[in-house]
């Protein structure tokens, strides 16, 4: 049987940064699947685009090697011809939607195929039924949860009936339940004879995936890896304090996102907040950062504070692009009067940013930008600690290890470190875990206890992966 | 404190209950074109048109939406009115304010009753190449998202103390350079978003020469009636002596 997808020593070099990735060789027959894995910054997304034909058709740069779809070389095909054979699932489903309703999103690719109306109707009905999208059809894709959006993006591609599916970190934005549901849908596609290629960090989720070839990618990228942080102690110590959240309620119109939450935090704690997409994790962090108006009270006691004082917690946002505009070094020190240069040196060393101090943010990889955003939040004066929203998004294990070591170091210096995540592996490293659901806090306590509380996970609508041992 | 979710400056939610929702988007585009011509007329005729147009908006069940939209731009209207009055004359101030009000109402009627997809289809049927119609559709669709991103940038910069200086009225002129902290991320995010959409559309055969739209438009009697009334009203206002 001839391979459906074949690539031989494919690599790509970007003209501006001269970053290169690859080579990747791969051969997939009908009903086979492959998992390409490697470190952050190693070029997985770029190589996924090479296989899907977006490179060389959309990107400038030097591509070496060839990709064959059946008998055709992608360099000689037009991009719409490639789209008939190869479907591409992007990392962030929210940003890739082209239509204003779910139905139009599904129709977009079908219309481009030039199919007759009856055939479009048949295929539309089929995917709506298969992916259980009937109740969403007239809704805007942007009102769906992350899991629903990823399901929709897959359905829109499956409707086009490509023979190969290429996926660039399709699980990275999903909570554990949505990830398992998505994998089940992909298993069905494999059984129907499609060939699948995953470019993914969250490897354990795919460990039972049928007929999966594992293809490790060498460290051809320029990003440093490793989990060593400086052995020096964190240069600043915090005084003793506690933060009290009482009756915290946040409403968007008539809908209560957070309802009468009561929480207490101590300086020196490393706390993970876990919940399904849309459970109010980000809203809770924003409230603590003073960015979100709310009902109730949040105040800090100790460390020479009045009881009415609001805690000073710096926030690391999910998307680092919202705040970067200076070269790395300047960005970290921007607007800080009398900066602690000892802390600066410690940070750039710990976050492996030394060689990028003069680099513009546009030229940094996603992982480097995330580390820079973390450095900004830590460097900015904070008396009580930092808040992080999905800090491990798109990070490989080495960078997650580095991140958790850094967070532990900061919490050991007496600061509160509170992070919201759907990455249960990352959360398992925290001292304390809070499970949040639609009706509020489901469980709160030492991480070990929470990981053993199966009833709480069930109530939160989350599946606790079996490889995470309490 | 109770937080009321801030409504976007330009709401792209559809008004399903409006009778105009079922009209052909080409008829609504023609109506908008006619109203845009009227904007150039002298004050007296502008007032007559606005009176008739408001009755039409009430019939279309869009009056509340129209008021909401006016409320959102009230400061622009007030400032323009005062500046024109002080600098030129009261008549010009009234004219400019009314013209802006008419344009707002036209825009409200169109986007409250037409999806971006319908608008693109109408433009395509009117002879605009699909590539351009699709771009206009995306621009409409992205209004809400751009506003959300602007909000996210604002918050991210505020949380690191960058914006407190910008918003201090005493230092605003000396600190204009700091506005780069908002504009650079905004440009980066908008460019990235545009690129992702390009990739997503290309990966689904956007440039296929074989494309056939699934939905069809039909210009029925009511669309003809609306178009003829629009043209007749504009012609009367222009040529009436």
User: How many beta-strand elements of chain A?
Assistant: 18
Cα end-to-end separation of chain B: 58 Å
Q: Strand order, biggest sheet of chain A?
A: 14-15-16-12-17-18
What gap, in angstroms, lies between the N and C termini of chain A? 46 Å
SSE order and pairing:
The complex is a heterodimer of chains A (470) and B (241).
Chain A lengths: L4 E9 L6 E9 L4 E5 L6 H8 L2 H4 L4 E8 L2 E2 L5 H7 E4 L12 H11 L4 H14 L15 H13 L5 E5 L7 H16 L3 E5 L12 E5 L24 E12 L2 E12 L3 E6 L5 H8 L6 E8 L10 E4 L11 H6 L7 H10 L15 H14 L5 E5 L7 H16 L3 E6 L2 H4 L4 E6 L2 E7 H6 L1 H7 L10
Parallel strand pairs in A: 3-8, 3-9, 6-7, 7-8, 12-16, 12-17, 14-15, 15-16
Antiparallel strand pairs in A: 1-2, 1-4, 4-5, 10-11, 10-13, 17-18
Chain B lengths: L24 H14 L4 H17 L3 H10 L1 H14 L2 H24 L2 H10 L4 H30 L3 H4 L13 H23 L18 H19 L2
Summed up, what is this model?
The complex is a heterodimer of chains A (470) and B (241). Chain A is of the alpha/beta class and 470 residues long.
What does this protein look like?
The complex is a heterodimer of chains A (470) and B (241). With 470 residues, chain A is α/β, with parallel strands linked by helices. Chain A contains 15 helices and 18 strands. The model of chain A is unreliable at 220-227 (pLDDT under 50). Chain B has 10 helices and no strands. Chain B has helices at 25-38, 43-59, 63-72, 74-87, 90-113, 116-125, 130-159, 163-166, 180-202, 221-239. The relative contact order of chain B is 0.14. Chains A and B meet through helix 3, strand 6, helix 4, helix 5 and strand 10 of A and helix 7 and helix 9 of B.
Highlighted features:
A: 470 residues; alpha/beta; 31% helix; B: 241 residues; mainly alpha; 10 helices; 68% helix; disordered N terminus
């Amino acid at each position: 049987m001839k391979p459906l997808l074949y690539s031989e020593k494919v690599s790509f070099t970007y003209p501006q940064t001269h970053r290169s990735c690859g080579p990747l060789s791969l051969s997939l027959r009908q009903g086979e699947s492959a998992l390409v894995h490697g470190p952050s910054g190693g070029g997985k997304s770029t190589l996924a685009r090479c296989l899907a034909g977006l490179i060389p058709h959309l990107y400038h740069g030097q591509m070496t090697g060839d990709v064959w779809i059946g008998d055709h070389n992608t360099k000689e095909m037009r991009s719409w011809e490639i789209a008939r054979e190869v479907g591409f699932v992007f990392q962030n489903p929210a940003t890739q939607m082209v239509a204003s309703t779910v139905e139009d999103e599904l129709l977009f690719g079908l219309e481009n195929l030039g199919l007759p109306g009856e055939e479009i109707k048949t295929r539309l009905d089929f995917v709506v039924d298969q992916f259980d999208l009937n109740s969403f059809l007239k809704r805007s894709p942007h009102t769906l949860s992350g899991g629903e959006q990823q399901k929709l993006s897959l359905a829109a591609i499956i409707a086009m009936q490509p023979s190969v599916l290429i996926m660039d970190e399709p699980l990275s934005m999903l909570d554990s339940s949505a990830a398992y549901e998505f994998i089940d849908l992909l298993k069905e596609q494999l059984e129907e004879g499609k060939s699948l290629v995953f470019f993914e960090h969250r490897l354990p989720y795919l460990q039972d995936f049928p007929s999966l070839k594992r293809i490790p990618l060498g460290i051809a990228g320029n990003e440093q890896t490793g989990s060593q942080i400086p052995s020096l102690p964190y240069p600043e110590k915090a005084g003793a304090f506690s933060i009290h959240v009482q009756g915290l309620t946040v409403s968007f119109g008539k809908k209560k996102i957070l309802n009468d939450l009561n929480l207490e935090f101590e300086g020196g704690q490393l706390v993970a907040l876990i919940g399904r997409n849309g459970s109010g994790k980000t809203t809770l962090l924003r409230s603590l950062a003073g960015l979100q108006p709310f009902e109730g009270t949040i105040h800090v006691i100790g460390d020479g504070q009045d009881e009415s004082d609001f805690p000073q917690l710096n926030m690391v946002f999910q998307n680092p692009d919202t705040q970067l505009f200076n070269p790395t070094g300047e960005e970290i020190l921007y607007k800080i009067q009398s900066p602690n240069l000892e802390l600066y040196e410690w940070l750039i060393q710990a976050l492996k940013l030394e060689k990028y101090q003069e680099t513009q943010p546009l030229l940094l990889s996603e992982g480097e930008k995330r580390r820079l955003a973390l450095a900004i939040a830590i460097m900015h004066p904070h008396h009580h600690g930092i808040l992080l929203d999905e800090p491990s998004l798109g990070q490989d294990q080495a960078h997650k290890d580095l991140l958790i070591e850094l967070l532990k170091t900061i919490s050991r210096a007496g600061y509160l470190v509170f992070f919201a995540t759907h990455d249960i592996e990352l959360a398992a490293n925290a001292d304390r875990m809070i499970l949040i659901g639609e009706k509020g806090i489901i469980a709160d306590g030492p991480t070990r206890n929470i990981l053993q509380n199966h009833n709480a996970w069930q109530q939160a609508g989350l599946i606790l992966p079996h490889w995470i041992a309490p | 404190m109770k937080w009321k979710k801030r409504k976007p400056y330009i709401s792209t939610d559809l008004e399903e209950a409006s009778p105009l929702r079922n009209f052909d988007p080409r008829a609504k585009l023609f109506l908008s074109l006619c109203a845009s011509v009227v904007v150039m007329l002298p004050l007296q005729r502008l007032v007559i048109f606005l009176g008739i147009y408001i009755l039409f908006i009430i019939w279309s069940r869009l009056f509340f939406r129209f008021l909401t939209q006016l409320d959102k731009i009230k400061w622009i209207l007030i400032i323009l009115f005062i500046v024109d009055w002080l600098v030129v004359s009261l008549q010009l101030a009234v004219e400019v304010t009314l013209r802006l009000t008419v344009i707002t109402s036209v825009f409200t009627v169109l986007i409250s009753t037409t999806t971006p997809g319908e608008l693109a289809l109408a433009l395509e049927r009117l002879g605009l190449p699909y590539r351009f119609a699709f771009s206009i559709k995306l621009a409409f669709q992205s209004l809400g998202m751009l506003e959300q991103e602007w909000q996210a940038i604002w918050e991210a910069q505020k949380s690191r103390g960058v914006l407190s200086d910008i918003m201090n009225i005493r230092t605003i002129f000396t600190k204009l350079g700091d506005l780069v902290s908002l504009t650079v991320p905004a440009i980066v995010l908008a460019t990235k978003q545009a690129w992702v959409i390009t990739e997503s559309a290309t990966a689904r055969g956007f440039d296929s020469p074989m494309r056939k739209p699934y939905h069809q438009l039909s210009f029925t009697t009511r669309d003809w009636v609306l178009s003829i009334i629009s043209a007749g009203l504009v012609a009367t206002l222009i040529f009436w002596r």
